[in-house]
TrEMBL record:
Species per Swiss-Prot/TrEMBL record: Paracoccus suum
Family note: Belongs to the phosphate/phosphite/phosphonate binding protein family.
Residues annotated as signal peptide: 1-23
NCBIfam families in UniProt: 3A0109s03R (TIGR01098), PhnD (TIGR03431)
Lineage: Bacteria, Pseudomonadati, Pseudomonadota, Alphaproteobacteria, Rhodobacterales
Annotated protein name in UniProt: Phosphonate ABC transporter substrate-binding protein
Amino acid sequence: MKQTTTTLALLALTSALAAPSFAQEITGFNIGVLGGENAQDRMTSNECLRKYAEETLGVPVKLFTPADYDGVIQGLLGGSLDAAILGASGYAKTYLTDPEAVEPVLVKTNLDGSSTYHSIGFARKDSGFTKLEDAKGKVLGFGDPNSTSGYLVPAVELPKAGMSVKPGEFFKDVKFTGGHEQTIVAVKNGDVDAGVTWADGLGDWEDGYNSGALRKAVDAGLVDMNDMVELWKSSPIPEGPWVVRKKLPEDAKTKFVALVAGLIEKDKDCAYGVAGGETAGFKPVTHDAYETIIEVRRLEEAGGA
């Protein structure tokens, strides 16, 4: 009996040593997916990553698709989410709220190797507008107040071009639609006269460019870009990062980051869905890449931007 007990104890110890160290500390892994399109499409686009992450980490992995950007941000701050792709402004808010909550690890790259994109001002072609200034006295649609391209960057750049984003000053009204997909649909349906969304600015307008909200809307059959016209393009914006929760076990971080970094080689179609269009994959990034956006967000929240 004593020998049996000793044998069982040794087997238990051996199993514990052989198991991944993070498996002893986490029982699940939760990935947040930013708003901007309907929840089912977000789930579908990221389901392949969920499955791969579950295989890699050896624990159940779930996707969470809050209705707005802040839902993901609060999930990361509260520790209920372990990883997510954030926009640069969303990362800035997370960092300014709690510098120890998350760390940026990877960033999407475009087909030309760059890791930037643009805020795009657009309208229906039958509006007759050729530039955003033509929408003076009309209704402008923003996406989400925590969106970099759907609010923060145009809120800084448009006033510098003489277009105040305060309702009633230059535009008759400025409305938040709730996300990028909602903005595109609102412009298409005439609920707003012009809107801003995001795209990499590469490839053809007719395709919604190579990646971004317009490309996803085209892929989903929501819009024909031949019915739309580009009115304004921002200066380049740094792509938002993949972030992971800082308090995750290092093994879990390492394995998840390696999975995402190698996703383009493992499954190109999966990488397309996760990246929102054509991509050359994900490359390492650090906090330093977002210091300018963090300062812009800090100033904007203080009313100085």
